[in-house]
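Record type: monomer structure entry
Structure origin: computed from sequence
Chain ID: A
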Amino acid sequence: MNKLIIASIIAIVIIIIIVIIFYVNRQRTPTLYDRLGGIFPIAAVVDHFSDSLIDNPIVGKNSSNKFLSDWHTNKLNRLPGLKWMRTLWVASITGGPFKYVGTKPGKCPFSLENAHRNLHISSIEFDAVATELEKSLNYFNVPIQEKREVLEAFMSHKNDIVMGYNIKC
């Protein structure tokens, strides 16, 4: 009888260990979205970033790119919606629980080429926008690793954005 009790206890302990291992392995690794703090901090960064672009000398209202200058001068009534779309894009691409659907869908769910084609954004202008994004991430003290990942996600779409630059208007 003692051998049966000991065997039962050992079996129960083994089952408990297996359950613990299974549970620990099921816990998900935090996404970039989680590590950024979720939708509210992302929205704050996007809000700051979007506002900073207006006065940026390369891409804002005084830009030598007439399409960007026009947008930042005459179409700012669209900025609240654009901030929402940018927030949704960042939340989605960082692994959050939101699905970004572009107003002008491109080759993949996160593509931005069709939305930016008519703005004729050059590589230099794109880089100026990336610099403003980095400044906004710094403003909110986003940790280095998360900042790097956000900037990498943004930079991975550079070719999509600048593809309209060489189109003659």
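Annotation 1: Residues 33 and 66 are 35 Å apart (CA to CA).
Annotation 2: The two ends are 91 Å apart (CA to CA).
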